[in-house]
Amino acid sequence: MHRTVVSGPRFRSLVAIGAIVALGAFAVSCGDDDSDDGSASSSDEKVVKIGVIAPLDAGLTSFGHGIENSVQLAVDQANADDAIPGWEIEVTAVDDSSDPAIGATAAETVAGDDAVVGVVGTYNSGVAAEVAPILDDAGIAMISPSNTDPTLTIGPDRSAPSRQFDSYFRLVATDAQQGPFLANYATDDLGAQTVAIVSETKAVSRGLADDFSAAFTEAGGEVVSDTTVPDGTTDFTTIVDQIAPLNPDLLFFGGEYEVAAALRTAAADIAAPLMGGDGIKDDAYIAGAGARAEGDLAGFVGAPLATLETAADFRDDYEAAGFADPSTDYGPYAFDAANLLIDAAAVALEDEDRVTPEAREVVIEQLQGVDLRGASGAIVFDEFGDTVTKVLTMYQVTDGAWVAVDVEEVG
After folding, report:
1. Which residue of 73, 253, 301, 400 has the fewest C-beta atoms within 10 A of its own C-beta?
2. Where are the domains of the chain?
3. CA 372 to CA 374: how far, in whole Å?
4. Residues 15-73: pLDDT tens digits?
5. Across the strands, what pairs with 365?
6. Is the bond into 122 cis (omega within 30 degrees of 0)?
7. Helix (H/G/I), strand (E/B), else coil: 382
């Protein structure tokens, strides 16, 4: 499903995203193609688009809607501030349903729109693996507010990291940091000595489980059971029957909230708390697991929205905008991603009549040199496109709600 959302009511930004430092003069040529390719409106005002690729119709939609709305907020504020003089900014949001194949189709759609200058997304790492190469081939910048698979930036060999896509950036920590963070909390704070691991098959889920397992074992813990299940599994009866006699101190789940809730429900008679990564940190997990979710834990690859000082204005503006869905903790990161693209486009499109391949190249160059403070905090990208600032949060279900119990910045 594809939908273009033209910015509606405008809300002036109170968060000083700041100007991106130009890396140098870059001359771009203006073509005289007057074809109606969507790069200009029927009036004299030119149109540039920020794409969003996220789960909007199916999949992990609670995350997707928050990402889309946060981008829309940034665009509305930028238009009100005339952030790109002479240009109207629009959001073009395309559903990926948390499905890599659908994501690839969405990426082709976005790449085929000559007015798109950059993309915010995807939510899912597995979808990003299909989307990133398509956008890279088109020379379109992609900034993820949520991907955690380390291979997207450094490749499969961590001992010999190699940048995969010059156009790909992310604003959050990866599972290379999240796995050990979760394991250290399990051993040091929970005192867990044994763990039973269940993971979905998808690479990012299995990867997080493996990173957790390695760190937990290194810390002296014992993995008493490790099972991989097909993505989207709903019946855990057999697996729970196998785990229960082992009496583990902790259940660890590699995957996302819908499947995690099914596991928690099936394991209602196992006293151990369930721990997972950022994929289960959603109110939908609590709703699905019910009262049995009490005491369960989830990591998050960023700072808590509720207490993030730099996001205070974002929280107020998002609420004032009246969006039907919450931003989730990924909101400030999606908001910053959109503003980064807008600021970079303001440099790239100066004196231009349309979005050109050269302008898209300038956007990527501008992003690589960014050094500023946004709603999510300090933003600097390393040579691989990863954020230099890596914040991790541990949440625990307390009285039926996620409560942050530990926040750490890791190297």
Report:
1. 400
2. 2-172+309-380, 175-300+392-410
3. 7
4. 333 333 333 333 333 333 433 444 434 456 799 999 999 999 999 898 999 999 999 99
5. none
6. yes
7. coil
